[in-house]
Design goal:
The protein has about 350 residues and is of the alpha+beta class. The protein is built from eleven helices and ten strands. It is about 50% helix and about 20% strand. It is elongated and about 65 Å long.
Length: about 350
């Protein structure tokens, strides 16, 4: 049970927490101040109290009753290894925005690290959409720029050469995704626009693209914006090798997909995407292939469907209808041939 795992983590930090904060001395207490349940894990917010202050840490405990004890331990070990690798790489490059691991609790199916305080970038986007005048300020632009800078620094810190772009494989993947989305109502005209536009863009694309370790879950919801900059706390889906543009495309798609909400307009999402791209450093020659990768990510969202109980059929139908229209608009905007 997560509770017994947390008892062990609290006990260990109370006894040996001082070694992670030698300047603080011996911990006086370790408190669990909140928790957030997720489908396969819990996130526990903790405070380690010292004589001259306190430190915030977060414990991610995988739910053995959902995924099995062996799987929980394996997932924790993989995520801890990812976190340790990126933290060390960032330390070497003198970069920030990655939490420091605090102990090794993978044998308990848990990952403990310093807590990066702030708000998800998606919350700032939603605030800009709902509060008139907020989007005109500098906060959202600055957050988007910092996000692009962080991802660029990450890809450079864990760079892994370059690889040839397999355009035929990418087109085949798009065709399969379009076929899945056809069953949800995506019309033939949009599919033709997507495939033809993608072929044209890839014909002009660079033959090779930079590679690195890829996060595979770099979205506005996982980007934390704090007073000291932006950071990422979840490295569970990170892969040791892949095309760096996959992270860029996934982020752009996740931002653009927020337009499916009626109160989140193109002006806001477009602003975030442009500031992010400028900070990351995408050239005009790279934009074509990035548009195709972004469309692949959007189609994957549509093909995946709305998650939830089958009893929520009406919500699933509504979601499919909204996503169908959104994909059609995105295809016309990004991949339609110029007039």
């Amino acid at each position: 049970m997560p509770e017994s795992v947390m008892d062990q983590i609290v006990s260990e930090l109370r006894a040996n927490g001082g070694q992670y904060y030698p300047e603080r001395g011996t911990p006086r207490s370790v408190r669990v101040v909140g928790h957030t349940p997720k489908p396969d894990h819990y996130i526990y917010d903790m405070v380690i109290d010292f004589a001259d202050g306190s430190e915030r840490v977060a414990a991610k405990v995988y739910r053995a009753n959902r995924c099995g004890t062996k799987t929980a331990h394996g997932m924790a070990k993989q995520e801890y290894g990812n976190l340790e690798r990126v933290y060390q790489a960032f330390q070497k490059k003198k970069l920030s925005g990655v939490p420091r691991p605090v102990g090794d609790f993978t044998a308990m199916g848990a990952v403990v690290a310093e807590k990066f305080s702030g708000f998800p970038l998606q919350s700032l986007i939603m605030k800009a959409a709902l509060l008139p005048g907020y989007a005109d300020g500098a906060i959202l632009k600055a957050a988007a720029r910092k996000t692009g800078e962080w991802l660029r620094g990450y890809h450079r810190a864990v760079a892994d050469g370059a690889a040839a772009l397999d355009t035929s494989c990418l087109i085949t993947e798009l065709e399969k995704l379009c076929e899945k989305c056809r069953g949800e109502g995506l019309d033939d005209s949009s599919i033709r626009t997507i495939i033809a536009g993608s072929r044209g863009a890839l014909a002009r694309a660079r033959k090779s693209l930079p590679c690195s370790a890829v996060l595979n879950d770099f979205t506005p919801l996982n980007v934390i914006v704090g007073e000291q900059g932006v950071g990422i706390a979840d490295f569970a889906k990170m892969a040791p090798h892949g095309m760096s543009f996959n992270d860029v495309a996934n982020f752009l798609a996740a931002v653009e997909a927020l337009e499916k909400y009626p109160f989140c307009n193109r002006a806001i999402t477009g602003q975030v995407q442009q500031e992010f791209l400028d900070a990351y450093g995408i050239s005009s020659a790279e934009m074509g292939v990035l548009r195709v990768m972004k469309m692949r990510a959007l189609l994957s969202m549509f093909a995946q469907g709305r998650r939830g109980k089958e009893s929520a059929l009406r919500k699933k139908v509504m979601w499919a209808t909204v996503m169908k229209r959104f994909i059609q608009q995105a295809a016309e905007r990004s991949l339609a041939p110029a007039a």
